[in-house]
Each structure stands twice: as structure tokens, then as C-alpha cells.
Here is the input.
Amino acid sequence: MDPNQTFLDMFEAMKNEDFETARELALALQHWFAKGGFCPHHFTRRAMQTYIDLVLRRTSEISREPVFSLICQHCDAGEGIKTEELAIAEGWSEIEPAFDLPQANYSGICPVCKETQENEIDDNQ
Ligand SMILES: [Zn+2]
Here is the structure.
């Protein structure tokens, strides 16, 4: 893609209050940079990121992306964990998308159940 054009389109979309398009383009740009893509020559990388962050913040309410929600495969833990990073930091494992679950869109194994499982494996040996 052409990040220059994408950036200008994003800018234009924000001006026209087309937040859905602006958000899509912001995400595309973020993805582009995450892959190590070059920066449009009119802008510094920092200015670019600041604006992308701003667009993502301003458009977050209209986002149709699924919000991260998590439930343990063995118990009902997981409430209040808002991001996958947080879940991993708290010791969750086997986090995977579970879009057919009514309670949450990700399932995993909570730290408590993980420990129980590990103890069971030990007992069997
Ligand atoms: Zn659990």
C-alpha cells in the first residue's frame, strides 16, 4: 500500500466525520508500521503515530471489532479481563478465540485451573 495516500485518506475521512473509514485506514497504517513499512516522507514517524493513536481513540466507540472478553474453559473466571496481554500477565494459558460461546469471545485456562491441572498430572505420575 501507499502509506502517504492512506494517511491523507485517513485525514480526509476524519475531516468528513467518516469515522468508520478513518478507523480502518488508521488500523491499516498501524499494521503497515508494525510490519516495518516505511514512513510517508511528509511526516515523521512520531507525528504519524500520534495521529493514528488519536484517530483510534476518537473512533473507538464506533468500532465493530469484538471487544476482548474471556472465560475459563473449566470455571467461570475471566470477568474483568479486558485484554489478552492482561490475561497472559495474570497467568492464563491456551487463550484462543471462541466466537461460538455466548459469554465471551475468547476462552482459556485461568491460573487457578492451570495449577489444578498441573497438580493432577503430578498425581498421575
Ligand atoms: Zn478456571
Notes: The longest helix spans residues 19-34. The chain has two domains: 3-62, 70-124.
